[in-house]
Structure prediction request, 311 residues.
Amino acid sequence: MTNDPVAATSAAHLPERARMPLGDLIASGRHSWSFEFFPPKTDDGERQLWQTIRQLEGLNPTFVSVTYGAGGSTRDRTVRLTERIAAETTVTPVGHLTCVGADSRELRSVIGQYAAAGVTNMLALRGDPPSGVGTPWTPHPGGLEHANELVSLIKPLGDFCVGVAAFPEGHPESRNLDEDVETLLRKADAGAEFAVTQFFFESSHYFGLVDRLRARGSDLPIIPGLMPVSNLAQIKRFAELSGTAFPQWLADRLETVADDPAGVKRMGVELATVLAQELLDGGAPGLHFYTLNSSTATREIYANLDLSHRP
Prediction:
């Protein structure tokens, strides 16, 4: 803690759940169950999102988070939604923060907003280039270039627990998997206490990442991220944008029901359940669901795994 004005905004009167350090909880061996949402562009979309949050609240998730839009375009809505989750639900929110479109002063201001709302768990990301995925990354004038720098900015400003992103198949800009692990290690050295992965479709990618990290002497907890398939064209596009391999065996399975939207969703839940079980059986500390602002598939997978009875 410091005498920084951001730190001073942290309110001790807020509920204990909002101040729970996720790093300690994840490291304790208790499984983490978390859900991620994206900020809707309209008020109607926000009302639908709020309904989804309320439906998933009953599953007692470890935390939830709301992403920034492309290029940091929805920062204000993201922060406002996160503040509302902290104030109006029993769920622990994690505040998203990226290096995109903001200088250090603006980033400190957002951190202060989160702190004032009692949000003390953060996810620090570099973010995608403002001009779009696949274009060169250029830092904002007066801003930060790498996620480890963002972790270093956050940590002295208060009693924050900071998570970061990890990439089982390597970040699209990394030259190889070893370089990618080096990047993750720099984030951990800066003070990151856990990581959440990009979504993937084969457990071997996750376990390979964990093995590479452990071989370097790091015990940073890595929470695997899952995105259940609900729309074949959509998931292929997401995979392409994120640099995630879409395996042929998965494409073949889904093509058998490609003309049946309900069948695609059922198979998506089935395949995600199998992957989730493999991850938990292999020692993953929990699961992080990219929900696409819908609770149906996530709740079905949760029921299939009977997560309510797991540690």
Residues 42 and 48 are 10 Å apart (CA to CA). Confidence is low (pLDDT under 50) at residues 1-15. The chain has one domain: 5-309.
